[in-house]
Amino acid sequence: AQKITQTQPGMFVQEKEAVTLDCTYDTSDPSYGLFWYKQPSSGEMIFLIYQGSYDQQNATEGRYSLNFQKARKSANLVISASQLGDSAMYFCAMRLIQGAQKLVFGQGTRLTINP
Amino acid sequence: DAGITQSPRHKVTETGTPVTLRCHQTENHRYMYWYRQDPGHGLRLIHYSYGVKDTDKGEVSDGYSVSRSKTEDFLLTLESATSSQTSVYFCAISDVGLTNEKLFFGSGTQLSVL
């Protein structure tokens, strides 16, 4: 079975600092994808970044990068130069490439950026 | 933005009444999902569909049923609503075959069962 764990319920960071949000996962399947989503106070789910289990390089999307450590089964999100608008809930998720393709989410981390 | 519409956006109902939430897509995507979001639990999968009339259970399917009679519509039914089903419900869609495909989410339905 798939499982995603986010151990940081909340984080507080000063504006312009870099922040790392932790995510660990558990699966016995070798083929999977890892996702990060942002949910601002408005409630919508915004896709941020994707990492495939066979990707050789860590994914990057603008200020977002994914620190993928396969042996440790971790997929931490790094946000560089944080901005006030980054304050939101952040969810890590995993989907197996084969089979049902269900996307399973972690519990989320609430990030607050202080001015 | 992906064409996903959830209806209604807000619903207040009483315990024991049936409730149906609708998810409509214009993307012709094969996969459709229903999630519920509760504080401290993130998003939990209720049911999903991998094609017309093809559905399966997620991790929190008790008390819920679904139907998909055409590609664009995925209905979630609470046969007899309970207060524990008060939640925000999200529909999501995705396509097949692309390993980096992301899910597109609807705007959510806030359901309150009194």
Features:
heterodimer; A: 115 residues; mainly beta; six-stranded mixed beta sheet; four-stranded antiparallel beta sheet; 53% strand; globular; B: 114 residues; seven-stranded mixed beta sheet; 11 strands; 0% helix
The total of beta strands of chain B comes to 11
Strand content of chain A: over 45%
Greatest interface (CB-CB under 8 A), with counts per chain: A-B, 22 and 27 residues
Sequence of secondary-structure elements of chain A: EEEEEEEEEEEE
Shape, per Cα inertia axes of chain B: globular
> How many angstroms does the end-to-end distance of chain B come to?
34 Å
Question: How confident overall, as mean pLDDT of chain B?
Answer: 91
Spatial extent as radius of gyration of chain B: 13 Å
Which assembly state applies to the chains in this document? heterodimer
The low-confidence parts of chain A are: none
**Number of strand elements of chain A:** 12
Structural class of chain B, by secondary structure, is mainly beta
- Average pLDDT value of chain A? 92
Number of helices of chain A: 0
End-to-end separation of chain A in angstroms reads: 41 Å
Helix content of chain B: under 10%
Descriptive report:
The complex is a heterodimer of chains A (115) and B (114). By secondary structure, chain A is mostly beta strands. Chain A has strands at 3-5, 10-14, 19-21, 24-26, 32-39, 46-52, 60-61, 64-69, 74-79, 88-96, 103-105, 109-114. Chain A is globular and about 45 Å long. The mean pLDDT of chain A is 92. The model of chain B has no long low-confidence stretch (mean pLDDT 91). Chain B has no helices and eleven strands. By secondary structure, chain B is mainly β.
Layout of SSEs?
The complex is a heterodimer of chains A (about 120) and B (about 110).
Chain A: E1 3-5, E2 10-14, E3 19-21, E4 24-26, E5 32-39, E6 46-52, E7 60-61, E8 64-69, E9 74-79, E10 88-96, E11 103-105, E12 109-114
Chain B: E1 4-7, E2 10-13, E3 19-25, E4 31-38, E5 42-51, E6 54-57, E7 64-70, E8 73-78, E9 87-94, E10 104-105, E11 109-113
Parallel strand pairs in B: 2-11
Antiparallel strand pairs in B: 1-3, 3-8, 4-5, 4-9, 5-6, 7-8, 9-10, 9-11
